[in-house]
Queue: 2 jobs
Job 1
Amino acid sequence: MAEVAKGGTAVAIEQHLTGRTLVVRLQGELDLVAAEEFRREVEKALDQSGARTLLLNLSQVSFIDSSGLGAILGRYRRMSQQQGRVILVGAGAAVLPILELSGLLRIIAHYETEHQALAAS
Amino acid sequence: MAEVAKGGTAVAIEQHLTGRTLVVRLQGELDLVAAEEFRREVEKALDQSGARTLLLNLSQVSFIDSSGLGAILGRYRRMSQQQGRVILVGAGAAVLPILELSGLLRIIAHYETEHQALAAS
Amino acid sequence: MEVRNTMQLEIPAVPENVGVARLALGSFASQLNFTLAELDEIKVAVSEAVTNSVVHAYPEGPGPVVVTAEHDGRELMIRVRDSGKGIADVAQARQPSFSTDPERMGLGFVFMDSFMDQLEVESRPGQGTTVTMRKRCQAGQQPQAAAEEGSARSGG
Amino acid sequence: MEVRNTMQLEIPAVPENVGVARLALGSFASQLNFTLAELDEIKVAVSEAVTNSVVHAYPEGPGPVVVTAEHDGRELMIRVRDSGKGIADVAQARQPSFSTDPERMGLGFVFMDSFMDQLEVESRPGQGTTVTMRKRCQAGQQPQAAAEEGSARSGG
Ligand SMILES: Nc1ncnc2c1ncn2[C@@H]1O[C@H](COP(=O)(O)OP(=O)(O)O)[C@@H](O)[C@H]1O
Ligand SMILES: Nc1ncnc2c1ncn2[C@@H]1O[C@H](COP(=O)(O)OP(=O)(O)O)[C@@H](O)[C@H]1O
């Protein structure tokens, strides 16, 4: 598992490629500032890797708001355009209610662990 | 191990008696508000238990300032008066430098784990 | 409401300050008897309101955002005010999915509305926008959140 | 110092608000390239200065505390001001272990001094006290703290 990119001030972003899946582990508070970083870093990694699946591990995300959701939705749109997909993993008590309320979970699959997500994909 | 008292708004305080040692596990930010609670709860537990040793587990304390130190020093003074003692356990990166700078570690022993502290006491 | 505590925070409308407001208000709210889940909701609401002032209010460069809050031990009031361009049609702006920015979700007001008990939006084009939110907590002497966090972690 | 960001927080001098100030300023400071250890130091310094206004300034009941901060990306300035009773002998007050309160340690000013690069205390009896602190961070584009925390935790 090679590390593709790591960036971040507000969120720590850790990425690696496993097969054709780009695994991105986010950590911190996914608000306006972090969403901007996330967008930039993940777009770069997607361009470089040619990944077909984007797995976003949210288990270390302690906060998300509509700006953070927007950044996830934006990546979902990009992947959909190129027949790829986005999978969410491990959203906790502070994040899951927001994902549900926004309706995002009706279009993006969510698994409890990376293992389950990779097995299902 | 019986729970003697649990209180707290700013810090979570968990206490139990093991032999004649009162074990208090603090959690949160040990500032002015928390120091006041800590003082109140621990004094009550010391009065009730007749403990000879007060073990303060700081491993879940994420912040301490001079108000928090003052509350520890106050308990040290009380225990010393009644020929008892205070032991500190598990202070982390945010707490240890403050303990050192204050000189408190020159009068109060500090161990990495409760196990080590209880073995040595 | 007999005010027990107040705060006022003034910041320029730049993205970095959304977190400053959220953390300050989160700490202020934790003085009341809210659950951890309710504190998370309050943080989202603050984040949305301040983000709106940052993203929408000042197209010509960051102006001031003033966040005030007060509580009486039972009810929390939070007000976020900017002196920016304002909103022409507030009812429309509050609709789910309505956004003037194609990159955004149009869920800011929806979240403020869902997560707080009461939401009031006053705006005059060219004058600015004031968002006032209220949330009540359970009766009780002590904030719950710290105790919850304690029992969630305590092993012995 | 070409100011890049500023903030102002006004709170009544009650114990619960020490945490509000500490969290707000901690978040503001994290906009600079400080290490996690340095951010902890800044939080202690803020906590001490605000605690002093809460504990010492207003014996007759809580008055206002105003915390302002600014930074230019390299240097952080934090100012804590009260309009309380003031300090007659500032040099004496700054001595290690000096306290007018037997329950306290007299380490507040010592910590502010140790943890910040510069500390200035202006006070006039009956007029109030203003504490100004400065700390510089390493040159660098990005705040370090988030990256550190990331690498500390990342397992894969
Ligand atoms: N403080 C503000 N100043 C000016 N316009 C605003 C402000 N807040 C909200 N708006 C307008 O209301 C719309 C809806 O806001 P919101 O529900 O928060 O969604 P979003 O921020 O995702 O666009 C925004 O797109 C914007 O046009
Ligand atoms: N804001 C203030 N207003 C009035 N007196 C103050 C203020 N800050 C500090 N002092 C005085 O200076 C003394 C030393 O302060 P400090 O070093 O912080 O120690 P401590 O707070 O533990 O007493 C205090 O005991 C108090 O007499």
Note: The helical segments of chain A are 32-49, 66-81, 96-102, 114-120.
Job 2
Amino acid sequence: MAARVSRADFDISAEMAALIGGDTGIGGVALFVGKVRGEVNGEPLVSLTLEHYPEMTEAELERIEAEARERFALSASLIIHRVGELKPGDNIVLVIACAPHRQDAFAGAEFLMDYLKTRAPFWKKETLADGSSRWVDARESDEEAASTWVSTPP
Amino acid sequence: MAARVSRADFDISAEMAALIGGDTGIGGVALFVGKVRGEVNGEPLVSLTLEHYPEMTEAELERIEAEARERFALSASLIIHRVGELKPGDNIVLVIACAPHRQDAFAGAEFLMDYLKTRAPFWKKETLADGSSRWVDARESDEEAASTWVSTPP
Amino acid sequence: MTDTKTNAEVTLRYFAWLRERAGRGEERLKLPPDVLTVGDLLRWQAGRGHPFDQAFAKPEAIRVAIDHAHVKPTAAIGAAREIAFFPPVTGG
Amino acid sequence: MTDTKTNAEVTLRYFAWLRERAGRGEERLKLPPDVLTVGDLLRWQAGRGHPFDQAFAKPEAIRVAIDHAHVKPTAAIGAAREIAFFPPVTGG
């Protein structure tokens, strides 16, 4: 289990290899990569700036991971979340969930993403071509996705 | 959209970058990697041999991908399936689904895997440490997983 | 015309344990004119004698594809050029 | 003892648009003794005058963490060392 915040990009293949190590009990690995999109409601995005709450982030990511591990038969999991100024096409987040079987791997990765989106202290600010910028609103659909996993509200 | 069979291993980062190209409409990428496990019912596995039906494989993978694309808002998808003799820890299959939003990416990747497991003409033969070998039985849970997506039986 | 089609040569292919039990990966032959559906073909195979009697003893464990597409036992063979027999797939 | 705790200095932290509207990322101060819950604290912030009146005008849009853990408005502040205010998170 590992969680970290990074200004630099990540290498998916290398992160996955390091996470698995020599564990041949792992039969399925589900990964998710979140990326910066180039448009916001049809307007070109210039950059996306990610702010976070450093002292809380790690504690929260570890709580999310521990909960995922308790719910699913995960052999290993990883969360890497980037901060700072990102451009369209850049990677924002990497989640990896390893399990003996694919169903647990998929469910683990989805759970990690849903909880990350509603509990981890990151905030996105979009800057558009006209120089204007605005903080991204939380999506209700994200709250709903997280709440389908249970009854423990943030 | 792409699907291919390969004796060689794949590079996940490179495949993902090539699949995405310059499409900045993609906000989420879900990936799945299936791996050879080191034990079968507690006995050490020596190798896993994958046979397939070459002329049918590509046609079937393309049908599976076309169906995934019809059901989910996928921007791009990829299936790579290995054949030949594999060892514990080796990669067997890679599935990538790209979409504007993560829910479609996850659903697309799960759909591709469920259909792959029940429709793509691949067969696994396990060889154990004592020299014995046996063809892997299809798992009923895989049939069930695929059938949850609809009513079109194989 | 239909008789001609039914009597045309067809390629039969075998995979996984069916290939091993049938002792071959492929063969070309003419099917009898009364073999009209996939179900007929599975019954005909089981009645061909050794080693097919063993290989096709449990037709419910066998899947069939005609010209690279999955078909059900009720499917017509029609003008099939290639018919494949195999156990349920186990890739992924 | 309880009075001492309630009157201890606490670090308040602000993130995203709350940081921008509050005009600061952090401050250290003593909370009034009658601010016992997170809900009390949100009301107290809204009453502090400029720029907090603006920043805390919609308390339902504000999330709170005490010592790096999410808390609800009903949570007691107790011996909190650090209390953070931020909009609903939007990472991932």
Note: The mean pLDDT of chain A is 93.
